[in-house]
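User: Structure tokens for both sequences below?

Assistant:
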Amino acid sequence: MSKTKRQKSAPVKPVAASDETSAASAASNVKPAKGKKTKRAPEPLESKALSDAPLLETTSAPPDDAPLGTLSASAGTDSGAALETPPAPKHETLRLPKGAFLVFRKSGGLHFSTREVVIYPDGRVAYDARGVPQKDYNRLRRALNDGQMLSLRKLLDQTNFWRAETTGEQNPDAFAYEIVARLGQRANEIQVFDGSMPEPLKPLIERLTPLLPHE
């Protein structure tokens, strides 16, 4: 009987600690067997929100043949609104303040303006058609002396102011002149205009105009 040769077994190599750790990590990454359900990674929130969001409406551009300066129907109403013309200043009826002798107003012009002067019997003047309270009366400046006041009273008679009436119409950009006066039992109020002013009243207008406040 022949003797068989005995094969030498290879020496067993000792496993280092680091090799054991790598083996354990590899075992944890092993894919599960087929047939088992795996959890699907959650879909990013950003992409999901975008897919669910409604599409924004876009305004269409005006056609090429649209006339310049026109707005599309989708444009805002505020941008297409026409500029409003400012209303004309409200005209207030001129009244003689309590205790006053005469009130004179000039209004109109290319750039509308209004100036007023109130004349009291002693020659004091105020530049507000409403006059001043009694407590402020002594603070008023005396613009006319006694002789000038007497001359003004005579001028009212000479120009026939007490019987004069309002005549004519105010032309665009022209001035209107209003006078209200009271002396004793006599009183009158008139309004005249540039371009149609009666000749007898012109000296009175020329005398009162310098008493108005400066613009």
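Moving on to the next sequence.
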Amino acid sequence: MLAKSPKFLAHLANCLAVLVMMHLIAESMAADPQSELVEDASKPVFSSPVLDLGLVVGDLEVSATFYRDALGCREVQGFTANGSFAASIGLVDHMDVTARVFLLGEGPSQSRIKMMSFPQAHASKSDQRFIHSTLGFSYLTLHVLDLDASMKRLKASKVSFEGKTPVSLGGGNALLVIRDPDGNFIELIGPSKTVIPPTAEP
């Protein structure tokens, strides 16, 4: 048997050490398959914290007027998509899309409400008696700068207030619940000088 040089033996020892280390890592990952996921969970997932909401309405003009004039959203340039493309991404059954877009404020980082209507689809409304009547997204919360100004604008548009709202949340803030033209719940929260906190019972 040929004698091995010291350099060869050192190289062999290094290779064996690497193999042993790889085996130990594999065993560790097999015992804890979430180890890779935990590392990934610490990294950012979303490129933006802004939410876009797609809203299908019964009457596009009526709902656009409500969200713009009664709520105070700002309408910007909308967009269109042909039925073939919309069908290719699984959102629409071969119907053209015309969307009107509304923002909650100024600046590039704004949540958007993308409003569209498909009269030819004859879509049925979900049960909106209460937020627990139907599974899924149930209401929209909007934080306003002046709830009193919002209520004045809503009253001018003859929008009814739900339940016993507005109600005080304390700290000078109040909450108001309304519905849009399709019956979807919208919650408005903001400072109010006219909504009086309930007096504490003795």
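User: Anything stand out in the second?

Assistant: DSSP finds five helices and eight strands in the chain.
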